[in-house]
Specification:
Blueprint lengths: L9 E4 L3 H14 L2 E7 L6 H5 L2 E6 L10 H11 L3 E3 L9 H9 L3 E2 L4 H8 L1 H10 L15 H11 L3 E5 L8 E4 L2 H19 L4 E5 L5 E9 L5 E13 L2 E7 L6 H18 L4 E9 L2 E8 L6 H8 L3 H9 L16 E8 L11 E2 L2 E3 L6 E5 L6 E2 L6 E9 L2 H14 L1 E3 L5 H7 L3 H5 L6 H11 L6
Parallel strand pairs: 1-2, 1-4, 2-3, 4-5
Antiparallel strand pairs: 6-7, 6-8, 9-10, 9-12, 10-11, 11-14, 12-13, 14-19, 15-18, 16-20, 17-19
């Protein structure tokens, strides 16, 4: 991709932390000016320091700042931005925000409002996947309105089933149900919680796989019908649907299965006219795979795909939003080596409770094959109002074994003082047999944690 002609003059980044800093770096290479927005408690944050301009948009609470659409739009207007990059989280999947951006004559760097609405609802996303011929888990054809309807469908599908909020995301709004009695107890509670959390009380039922793998495919499309995939990632190492470690490519898949998953994801992008970067997520069991959802934005774990492909996905996202044609054909995508990412959060490493506070000592690991995506430094504050991310530590190697060895070395080098972090968890987890050998599922981490607790481990 040529960087000779900047795709935009100025981009406002409607986010904070490491993703805001990541977008700033991509824009700087493209010759594009940047505007950071920040809340009062983020006045000294690195994304504010490194942007060309910065605008305070309100108090610390996200609803009064980063989620306040009028204030974000005002910042874009007064600084003369001609595009808005939402990052991930906050307003990234908000169709009303995307529409408001375009109505003001700016470009939203993401999907159009049609695709945001289609993929923002899990049921409409399933309809799109069904129309594209992707395999789906058996379940309800639409929202389930009554307990009697839910019981009929659950008995037909067979327990266990999973009850999901149609508008849920990030692992929220999901409950595994083992029998009729449990379904009766939690059906209305789940609907009420879905309405309170997402503004939509619709829930649906799917067959529940007890030990699947979570495989996602990086995809991209342009406004002229071109669609490609950039390989897959394994995100199975997760706790309560929250990802801990991601890697690319996914270990242990047969080449036939790998090819079918990648092709299905690219087909869905082409069939829906999706024109930006995104992620198609699947559950895998044996040689079968099932469509799960589409994340119509850049993902936290995009870094591992960048490391094995050499493609700057943020720059690609920006150029596609500017209306440029896809610069790559599928045969141009070359994947090399293996990359593994560990998310280091300011949390108790064993209880996973947030631990905000000031970082009093910080050392980022380095060396061959190590990449750090972070927006903290010594003296920085982990705020209690937002995500507790400290850093993403990514290791690349020509083989999975070498990447894993480098990641282990990086974990041993990393220093974060003043707040508790999940570094001790990662140091132990990387040495566990299941992860080291690549034989794991979405249940592995929780089983490992339970086993560790039963053994009374006090290390870390």
């Amino acid at each position: 991709m040529s960087a000779s002609t900047p795709p935009f003059g100025k981009i406002l980044i409607a986010n904070r932390g490491e993703i805001a800093l990541r977008v700033i770096r991509a824009c700087r290479e493209l010759g594009v000016k940047t505007v950071a927005v920040y809340s009062q408690c983020d006045a000294n944050a690195l994304h504010v320091r490194f942007a060309d301009e910065a605008v305070c948009i309100g108090p610390p609470a996200a609803r009064q700042s980063y989620l306040n659409i009028p204030r974000v739009l005002s910042a874009a207007e007064i600084t003369g931005a001609d595009a808005v990059h939402p990052g991930y989280g906050f307003l990234a999947e908000n169709a009303d925000f995307a529409r408001a951006v375009t109505e003001m004559g700016m470009t939203f760097i993401g999907p159009d409002t049609k695709n945001l609405r289609v993929f923002g609802d899990k049921l409409s996303a399933k309809d799109a996947a069904r129309a594209a011929g992707l395999p789906l888990l058996e379940g309800s054809p639409g929202p389930v309105g009554t307990i009697d309807e839910a019981l009929t469908i659950a008995r037909k599908v067979g327990y266990p089933i999973i009850l999901k909020a149609a508008a849920g995301g990030g692992g929220k709004g999901m409950r595994v149900v083992e029998d009729d009695d449990q379904l009766r107890r939690i059906f209305e509670l789940t609907r009420t919680e879905a309405l309170a959390s997402f503004g939509n009380g619709d829930v649906f039922i799917e067959r529940y796989l007890r030990e699947p793998r979570h495989i996602e495919v990086q995809v991209a499309g342009d406004k002229y019908g071109a669609a490609i995939h950039v390989g897959e990632r394994d995100c199975s190492m997760q706790r309560r649907h929250q990802k801990i470690i991601e890697e690319a490519p996914a270990p242990g898949l047969s080449e036939s299965l790998r090819g079918r998953i990648r092709e299905a994801a690219a087909r869905l992008v082409a069939s829906t006219g999706y024109h930006t970067v995104g992620t198609c997520e699947f559950l895998v069991e044996g040689e079968e795979f099932f469509f799960l959802e589409v994340n119509p934005r850049i993902q936290v774990e995009h870094c591992v795909t960048e490391e094995v492909s050499g493609i700057d996905l943020i720059q690609l996202q920006i150029r596609l939003a500017a209306g440029e044609p896809m610069p790559l054909r599928q045969e141009d995508v070359r994947l090399d080596g293996h990359a593994i990412e560990a998310r280091v959060n300011a949390e108790d490493p064993w209880r996973f409770t947030p631990c905000p506070g000031q970082i009093t000592g910080y050392h980022a690991p380095g060396g061959l094959g190590i990449r750090i995506d972070s927006a903290v430094c010594e003296g920085a504050w982990i705020q209690p109002y937002y995500d507790s991310m400290v850093a993403k530590i990514i290791a690349w190697g020509p083989t999975r074994e070498i990447a894993l060895s480098r990641l282990g070395r990086a974990m041993d080098e990393a220093v974060v003082e003043g707040v508790k972090t999940t570094l001790p968890l990662h140091r132990e987890l990387l040495r566990c047999e299941e992860f080291a050998t690549g034989r794991f599922s979405t249940k592995t981490l929780e089983v490992w944690l339970a086993r560790r607790a039963a053994e009374g481990s006090t290390s870390g």
